Amino acid sequence: MSNHLPKITIGMTSFYARETIARAIESALGQDYPNKEILIVDDCSEDDSVEVIRRAINGVSYARLIVHEKNTGFAGALNTIIANADGDFLVIFDDDDVSHPERLSRQLDRILRYEADYKTDLVLCHAARVQTYENGYERYEKTVGTDIGKAPNGSIMAERILTGNLGSYGSNIVGSCANCARMGRTEIFRKFGGFDSTMRRAEDTDFSIRFALAGGHFIGIADPLVHQTMTGGAEKSVDAEEIAETKVFKKHEAFLRNIGWHDFVRDWMAIRYAYFRNQWG
């Protein structure tokens, strides 16, 4: 029976994840959707992450591990997954998150129903998340496109991501589009050239903008199907975030100029990061 269902690749990157990835893999193995593969790419970890992964997938016929000989960053590791995925659909799991057992089934069902209703396969589906911080604080992170009906799409969605302008969609266009909660047809990721491997942060934001500008639709599930662990690190510093956001801004300057938001976004970004530095250094 499962052979008649679309195959879903669970793509998971790993980098110094020895403490968390066994739990993440257990979450992938526990998905109730039958026709799946698990494809893990370790991005040249120098701890024993690879050994932990090998133990976790030992004897699992539908799980594979690729080990990078050189660190490429998160985007580069995702691109290796995209290039090697056998599934019709690709869903991204982080190496320190846990997904609800029905995540694959529910996101696939949402996509297939939307494709049938609106006659398009340019669809990405994101799930809401529960985020847990290092101090134990938890919060619900809404995702975009959870209302029934036509989802945010096209240049209006690109404008919302870059400027925050809600356009005519109201609250349905509010919410994040994080990689760790994303599913789409594998061909979509390939068609748009995967992720920008020169970016160490905000590669998911850049992909979403490019997808939106090509007419892509953003649908969502309001239930938090991902439990996300929020961690710190140098790659998430104020400086790193500003570098990443500036790169996104520069890549899409022409669009911002065309819609009349260029100077506002530039100036607001400068104000925000000046404030962040004053607060957190």
List the helices and strands and how they pair.
Blueprint: E1 8-14, H1 21-29, E2 36-42, H2 49-57, E3 63-67, H3 73-84, E4 89-93, E5 98-99, H4 103-118, E6 123-132, E7 138-141, H5 154-163, E8 182-185, H6 186-191, H7 203-213, E9 217-229, H8 238-251, H9 253-259, H10 262-280
Helix pairs in contact: 1-2, 5-7, 8-10
Structure characterization notes:
It is built from ten helices and nine strands. It has helices spanning 21-29, 49-57, 73-84, 103-118, 154-163, 186-191, 203-213, 238-251, 253-259, 262-280, and strands at 8-14, 36-42, 63-67, 89-93, 98-99, 123-132, 138-141, 182-185, 217-229. Strands 1, 2, 3, 4, 5, 6, 7, 8 and 9 form a nine-stranded mixed β-sheet that branches. The longest helix has 19 residues, at 262-280. The chain is globular. The model has no long low-confidence stretch (mean pLDDT 95).
What descriptors fit this protein?
281 residues, Spore Coat Polysaccharide Biosynthesis Protein SpsA, Chain A, alpha/beta, globular, 2 domains, single chain
- In the predicted model, the low-confidence regions spanning at least 5 consecutive residues are none
Task: Give the SSE order as H and E letters.
Answer: EHEHEHEEHEEHEHHEHHH
> Helix amount, in percent?
40-55%
Sheet-strand content, in percent, reads 15-25%
Distance from N terminus to C terminus (CA atoms, Å) equals 56 Å
Keywords: Transferase
Protein name: Glycosyl transferase
GO molecular function: transferase activity
Domain Glycosyltransferase 2-like: 10-187
